[in-house]
Fold this sequence. Notes:
The complex is a heterodimer. By secondary structure, chain A is mainly beta. Chain A is 3% helix and 39% strand. Chain A has a single domain (2-11, 30-127), classed as Immunoglobulin-like. Chain A has a four-stranded mixed β-sheet with strand order 1-4-5-7, with no helix packed on it. A four-stranded antiparallel β-sheet of chain A has the order 2-3-9-8, with no helix packed on it. In chain A, a hairpin with a 2-residue loop joins strand 2 and strand 3 (43-49). By secondary structure, chain B is mostly beta strands. Chain B folds into two domains: 1-37, no CATH class; 39-137, Immunoglobulin-like, CATH 2.60.40.790. Helix content of chain B is 11%, strand content 41%. Chain B contains one helix and eight strands; from the N terminus they run αββββββββ. Chain B has one helix spanning 10-25; strands at residues 41-46, 50-56, 66-70, 73-80, 91-96, 101-108, 113-123, 126-133. Chain B has a four-stranded antiparallel β-sheet with strand order 1-2-8-7, with no helix packed on it. Chain B has a three-stranded antiparallel β-sheet with strand order 3-4-6, with no helix packed on it. In chain B, strand 7 and strand 8 (126-133) form a beta hairpin. The radius of gyration of chain B is 20 Å and the shape is extended. Classes of the chains: A mainly beta, B mainly beta. The A-B interface holds A 34-41, 44-45, 47, 49-54, 73-75, 77-88, 113-116 and B 35-36, 38, 41-48, 50, 52, 54, 56-60, 83-85, 89-99, 107, 122-126. Strand 2 of chain A pairs antiparallel with strand 5 of chain B, so a sheet runs across the interface.
Amino acid sequence: MSNDIQTRSTTGASEGTDPKQKSPRYGGGALTPPVDVLEDAGGITLFADLPGVSRDNLNLQVEAETLTIEAESSLAVPDGLKTSHTEVGLGRFRRVFTLSKELDTEKVSAELSQGVLKLRIPKAEHAKPRRIKVEVA
Amino acid sequence: MYRSFFPRDMLAEMDRLQRDMQQAFDLAPTIRGFGSNGFPALNVGVTPEAVEIYAFAPGVDPATLEVNLERGLMMIAGERKSVLPTADAKAAVHINERFDGPFRRMLTLPDDADPEAVDARLRDGVLRITVRRRASAQPRRISIH
């Protein structure tokens, strides 16, 4: 599912799409989805809770060293629904992370299943940890 | 009242302050508590025909999910597996904000909810429960002769 990711360089053509314009329904407000970030020798794995988000409404962007997760929930609400209790008040999610240099942003892969996004950002080959041999003098 | 052992932890202090503020405004909460910050988060609404409950439960294994309705009390229970590495794995946890473990939430339904007509669907991590309201409670227009 890595084709969802758009990797862009800062020197690229200017992007005319302002994410805020795409969803006037909720204005500029967005929820901050809770995440888990783990790191092992091979890279970083990020899990984000995006309930109600389908693949089409998820937008991941890596631009220079900034990772942006934007998503819109595609929840169908029946007509004439009067809400009596609301804990999730917005249908948009947005979160931005700054990546570090040793991560290989060209090889990011993403999976979305049951409203959970799993993002894997591997480390660049040269940045993988090497065990340094200690010579005994 | 809970006090932080490390008062210098600004974020924890702000979090506590926010919670205190929220509770101060709700002077007479229901016996089942304040009903926020739980997992799964719930949105509840009504239409003339049904009560709609949206439980935001991303990443919950549908096999563990259980919905019970008894005497007007709905219970949503299940378990979400942790993604965190085991102690022996060579991995670091940088951010851990997502809920994991077993959960159980309860909510009171209106009196006219029909326990025989409940429909629950799970899609993209959102559990939508529709409970029909009894016909007698639906608005009727009375014709005048």
